Recover the amino acids of this structure.
């Protein structure tokens, strides 16, 4: 028995083991499929290391041994199914997300264009301390109005108008230091000045300008009185001009054409023109184009307020005005006048080649009485004691202009509150500081409002307000010579401001009356101005807002309020030269213009009398309007600029060109490219609007990118084309480049550029 048992054990050891199915990884692939391999091995041996013994036994006959479950088999199956389960879950989640998004977007289609204006309740500012909580738009508005003081405005206007402020004078140098000290006393992040050495023209006291009759032999006769001998036209050509006198109404090109059509030739003669409608520079340029020898400019009583209760200009007052058809220093065109740097000897093409001189109404009466020839048209008749006005020609006149040019230092003063999120984007507000004469309306009001806004925003910063974008307050010098200070600064930092300045707000000529309100602006700002007008109280109609005041007689508020930017405004330079949207606010008289502008009678007392004691209230309204505009522009997450409005503006201007379609066809040209460009722009604007609708407001980087794209609307096409389009009141006309900026991401949202060595805003 024992021998039999030994034989059986030996036979079991010698018999082959059961067939085993073994899985091993396929060579050459990291995660390849597994292939089966049949291998017989002796019992007790370990499987090779590269094998994966997922199942150690092969198939056995059914019922040969009890069935049992292998846990390793189930684990392997689970690992193989996991990727499929994850993919299925992702597909379900993605489908649900897309379905919810479509439903949500469909419900927001009714929002329309209103989505472009950031909700006022969503504008908030976190204070520096957590206990201060959140500042919403209503909080900021209440804070601003609480800190804005009316009494300070009136006192500052009075004190400023009493100081000598001619550019380059000793009085101006003292005022510069005083204003700089005021800014340094406020809670501003940076205060600095820059100085430009510019060419200004002044009268020569030793050789005053003169006007003489000339007899038939060409000899000088009686000298005519220039009752304001120190009143002159800066940048007039110097020298002598002699010729017969002709009356040419306002001196517009159509006036000179009409004069020629009536048989009176302006060429070779001196023109007598009235103040108004167009500026001095345009009058002289038109006269030069028609071959005139010189120009005399006088104020006609018909162009000013009449009546027993209306103030009017004295008949012996002449009116000051420069005659450079352009802005900035005409002796360094295109270059900033820093550090007395010498540039190529080139002058602005806008400098006239004929002399010009302002005269009083009394002197003009003496001249008109000597005129012969046809009677002037009825609409050309004025209110001088001469009836009727005749066209001329009259006796010969000799005009001598002896102005001299002087290199003069002018200083701009800057104060900055640095933004917290976009510190390299600047909302700029400025006011002219200099004036020829008292200049109460010309520059004292704007300077007072600027200083009050500086003080108000400084107080707001002390109470927790911090704008997203930087606020830049500027006091300009050289404004009476053609916005010289602002233009020289633009020329010096054009490459930066071209991309970094958001909007420019001008406070010049802000209060010239109280009956009507005008906003001379760019299309991008029209919607925002409408919104702000609805939140500022009217200064002379109790219980009404400014918006309700302007629509009282005209339901089209835009037709009543919006005007193009004039060439003699500093805001014009920002728009036409740098492509920056700009606005200039003005309260005006209903009817003839404020009579004392640019004269020695532009005093605080006269301005106060014209406004019948409402000067403080009107100045306060301008400060409220400008301040709330600054809050929106510097605080809103998304810039509240209506970039879609350009399509409508371009369409209106295309309509004005249709009358010239015949001339264009004769030259092989067509307006089709303008229509195509407008279409491209509208589509690009709509695409950007949709992107903004579907974006997250909390995404700071994305918000900045959209703001950059909005800012770059209208920032291409500088030069003469831009200047011409800017005069119509809208930025640069190169729509295809606008469309490209709307369609691309723009600059790197993290980039930042300073305003030059003088400005410490380096991000």
């Amino acid at each position: 028995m024992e021998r039999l048992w030994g034989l059986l054990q030996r036979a079991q050891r010698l018999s082959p083991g059961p067939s085993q199915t073994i899985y091993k990884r396929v060579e050459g692939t990291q995660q390849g499929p597994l292939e089966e391999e049949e291998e017989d091995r002796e019992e007790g041996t370990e499987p090779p290391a590269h094998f994966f013994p997922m199942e150690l036994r092969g198939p056995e006959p059914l019922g040969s041994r009890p069935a049992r479950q292998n846990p390793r088999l189930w684990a392997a199956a689970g690992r193989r199914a996991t990727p499929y389960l994850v993919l299925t879950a992702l597909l379900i989640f993605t489908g649900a997300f897309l379905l919810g998004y479509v439903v949500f977007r469909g419900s927001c289609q009714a929002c329309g264009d209103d989505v472009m204006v950031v909700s006022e309740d969503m504008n908030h500012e976190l204070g520096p301390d957590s206990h201060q909580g959140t500042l919403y738009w209503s909080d900021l508005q209440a804070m601003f109005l609480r800190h804005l003081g009316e009494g300070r405005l009136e006192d500052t206007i009075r004190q400023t108008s009493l100081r000598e402020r001619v550019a380059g004078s000793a009085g101006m140098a003292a005022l510069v230091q005083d204003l700089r000290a005021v800014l340094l006393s406020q809670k501003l992040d940076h205060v600095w000045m820059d100085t430009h050495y510019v060419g200004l023209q002044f009268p020569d006291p030793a050789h005053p300008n003169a006007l003489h009759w000339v007899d038939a032999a060409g000899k000088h006769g009686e000298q005519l009185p220039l009752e304001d001998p120190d009143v002159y036209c800066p940048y007039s050509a110097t020298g002598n001009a002699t010729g017969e006198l002709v009356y040419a109404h306002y001196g517009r090109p159509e006036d000179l054409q009409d004069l020629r059509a009536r048989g009176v030739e302006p060429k070779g003669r001196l023109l007598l023109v009235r103040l108004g409608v167009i500026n001095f520079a345009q009058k002289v340029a038109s006269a030069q184009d028609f071959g005139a020898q010189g120009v005399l400019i006088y104020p006609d009583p018909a162009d000013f307020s009449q009546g027993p209760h209306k103030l009017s200009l004295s008949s012996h007052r002449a009116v000051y005005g420069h005659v450079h058809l352009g802005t900035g220093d005409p002796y360094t065109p295109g270059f900033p006048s820093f550090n007395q740097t010498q540039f190529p000897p080139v002058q602005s093409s806008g400098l006239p080649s004929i002399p010009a001189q302002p005269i009083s109404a009394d002197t003009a009466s003496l001249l008109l009485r000597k005129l012969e020839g046809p009677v002037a048209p009825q609409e050309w008749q004025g209110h001088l004691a001469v009836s009727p006005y005749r066209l001329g020609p009259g006796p010969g006149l000799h005009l001598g202009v002896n102005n001299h040019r002087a290199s003069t230092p002018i200083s701009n003063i800057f104060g900055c509150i640095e933004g917290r999120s976009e510190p390299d984007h600047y909302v700029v507000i400025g006011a002219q500081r200099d004036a020829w004469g008292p200049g109460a309306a010309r520059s004292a009001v704007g300077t007072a409002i600027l200083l009050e806004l500086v003080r108000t925003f400084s107080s707001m910063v002390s109470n927790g307000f911090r704008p997203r974008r930087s606020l830049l307050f500027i006091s300009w010098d050289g404004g009476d010579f053609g916005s010289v200070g602002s233009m020289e600064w633009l020329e010096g930092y054009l490459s930066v401001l071209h991309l970094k300045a958001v909007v420019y707000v001008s406070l010049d000529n802000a209060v010239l009356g109280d009956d009507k309100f005008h906003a001379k602006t760019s299309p991008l700002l029209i919607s925002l101005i409408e919104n702000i007008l609805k939140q500022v109280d009217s200064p002379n109609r109790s219980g009404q807002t400014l918006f309700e005041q302007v629509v009282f007689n005209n339901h089209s508020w835009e037709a009543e309020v919006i005007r193009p930017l004039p060439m003699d405004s500093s805001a014009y330079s920002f728009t036409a030269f740098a492509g920056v949207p700009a606005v200039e606010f003005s309260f005006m008289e209903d009817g003839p213009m404020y009579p004392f502008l640019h004269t020695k009678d532009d005093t605080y007392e006269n301005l106060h009398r014209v406004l019948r004691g409402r000067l403080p209230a009107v100045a306060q309204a301008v400060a409220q309007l400008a301040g709330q505009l600054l809050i929106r522009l510097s605080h809103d997450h998304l810039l509240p600029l209506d970039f879609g409005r350009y399509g409508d503006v371009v369409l209106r201007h295309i309509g004005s060109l249709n009358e010239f379609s015949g001339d264009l066809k004769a030259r092989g040209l067509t307006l089709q490219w303008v229509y195509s460009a407008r279409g491209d722009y509208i589509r690009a604007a709509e695409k950007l609007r949709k992107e903004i609708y579907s974006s997250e407001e909390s995404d700071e980087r994305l918000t900045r990118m959209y703001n950059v794209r909005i800012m770059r609307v209208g920032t291409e096409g500088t030069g003469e084309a831009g200047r011409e389009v800017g005069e119509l009141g809208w930025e640069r006309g190169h729509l295809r480049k606008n469309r490209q900026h709307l369609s691309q991401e723009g600059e790197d949202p993290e980039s930042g550029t300073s305003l030059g060595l003088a400005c410490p805003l380096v991000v």
Observations:
- The mean pLDDT is 79.
- The CA atoms of residues 125 and 135 lie 5 Å apart.
- Residues 208-401 form a domain with the Glucose Oxidase; domain 1 fold (CATH 3.50.30.30).
- The radius of gyration is 39 Å.
